[in-house]
Amino acid sequence: MALRLAVTRTLTSRRSFGPANLSLRQPLQQIVYRYSTHDSRLSPDGKVAAPPMVYIAGEEMTHYACDLVVDRWIKPFFDTSSWEYYDLSCKARDESDDKVLHDAVEAGARIGAIFKEPTITPSVVQVEEMGLSKAFGSPNGAMRKGWNGITISRDTIHIEGIELGYKKPVFFERHAVGGEYGAGWDQVGGGTLLTTYLPEGGAPIIVDKRELTDENNVVVVYHNPYDNVKPLAHLFFKRCLEAN
User: Fold this and answer.
1) Region of residue 131 (left: phi > 0; alpha: psi -120 to 50; beta: else)
2) Distance of CA 179 to the CA centre of its chain
3) How many CB atoms lie within 10 A of CB 83?
């Protein structure tokens, strides 16, 4: 999937390469030749100029695999000098006190084209193993908030030659902001747990009240913004209607 995502985004940009009617099964040499005849924007060494993009590097095996893809099948044929690179490995986030995450979010909002490798949200054990100063939270919530990413699409992947038992695609959408991504929590003892809403210019409203009878409890508080539920639903049903 990393190869398909990276190559698809780079080669199907109408702004940079003209009609997006190529097949990923063609050898990259043929693709480069075809687009060099359609577009004169080549680098001095004859490579096709890739459009601006934010490349976010991650961790572990996918990072290793993506390095192979980029070094062997992208850079020999495409000039990627317009790409901006950000390392979101645990070490890089720790060394920059998470400034690299904020820089990556800003760049993604500015450029509007992002490729992200999987990243790690370190556990308590991994914090110790990696020698981190603290356990940094998942970067995905900050990215979706910064890019107005209201939904996560997890559609079925259809591969020629592999029968799934159904022919048409199945679409999934998940609300991608609020909820547990921005949750607050604490470990508390027994007592009364009170969740209070303080409206601007109004009297406090008790949202929830409960008695904690156990000696050890974990309390989690979060909310879901409803402002973007209608756009999310519109996007989902529009995709379904267009596909079927």
Assistant:
1) left
2) 17
3) 19
Rg, C-alpha atoms of the chain: 23
Angle among Cα 59, 63, 69 to the nearest 5 degrees reads 175
Q: Are the C-beta atoms of residues 193 and 213 closer than 8 Å to each other? A: no
207-240 residue pLDDT tens: 999 999 999 999 999 888 777 788 888 888 998 8
The answer to whether the CB of 240 falls within 8 A of the CB of 172 is no
Q: Which SS3 state, helix, strand or coil, does residue 189 take?
A: coil
pLDDT digits (tens, 9 = 90+) for 32-89: 444 444 454 676 778 999 999 999 999 989 999 999 999 999 999 999 999 999 999 9
3-state secondary structure of 194: strand
Dist CA 216 CA 240 (whole Å):
46
Give the single-character DSSP code of 86: E
Determine the Cα–Cα distance for residues 213 and 207; give it in Å rounded to an integer: 20
